[in-house]
Here is the input.
Amino acid sequence: MASEARRETISWVRGVRSVGVAPALGFLLVALLLVWLGINLAKTPSDFASVALEGLTLGLVYGLIALGYSLVYGILELINFAHGDVFMLGSWISFTVAAHKIGLDAGSSGFAVIWGLALTLLVAMAFCGTLNITIERLAYRPLRNAPRLAPLITAIGMSFILQNVGLNRLGPAPVSVPNILPTGAVFSIGGHEYRWSSLIVALTTLPILFLLIWLVQRTRQGKAMRATAQDQEAAAMMGINVNRTISFTFLIAGALAGVAGLLYALYSTNIRYDQGFQLGLIAFTAAVLGGIGNLPGAVLGAILIGLIQQFNEGLSWHAPSSQWTQSIVFAILILILVFRPEGLLGERTPEGG
Here is the structure.
């Protein structure tokens, strides 16, 4: 009896270690975060609301980049590290077209801003979509049947190539973008203004996100994308052109990067050659947090990351400050990979079964 009881105790302890410790640690971290947010909300409610709105806006921009990662990973199970640098070149081409070719600046009239930004958006989407298709055709397609390490290294190499192109075009210093959007306040919370520029960025992002989800879930091409993601050989046997479907996926992901590049340039009013590396990793973390391969999950993860970043940089009570933003974001990435690798929405990749 004593030995049997001892065996049951050992089995229970092992069960607690294997099943209970990880969720308990996760719940503890979430509880501490909620307590910290609650105290900040109680102390400075107006600051909290203002920071939350800015975090939501920033998260929606991150969502456009995160969707590109999720689309490509869902089809090829490839982490396209060059995607962030395509986004950076989208900011560069948007700045070049809007400021240098069209001549938009802070003094431009409303009609000129509308048609100028519409034209800039189309150029940025076409440029980044074409660039992404070219990368897929030249760098990734020849390695489609190679060991997984080969395309991963190639993606990192393409990232460095595009980053150096950006360095050549933009230079090492940040480049200021004219404040083209209206700067007036939409409303004010405790003296903190939520400006038209932020609202326009948010309102531009939401329809694009819903349109993409509709494209993937409701259209014939979306069905081909989902079939290719599940089994490329079976999809080809059913008459789906796999290469064309993959190229279309890269086209959409690149177009999203172009939109994000324009919106980020308008939102932050400055661009840099290394923004693709930094923001690309943040957007990748958002995709993993929400569930990489899951489009609504990528948007949810991006909004959460945007809120966490703004809370960290904007709240007053025991906020770590902007110097810790990247460390916090990558700590979240590590914790998600360790405790819940399928992400918050539970979308398991083919690799994970």
In short: The chain is about 75% helix and 5% strand. Residues 15-19, 349-353 have pLDDT under 50 and may be disordered. The CA atoms of residues 39 and 247 lie 49 Å apart. The longest helix spans residues 2-43.
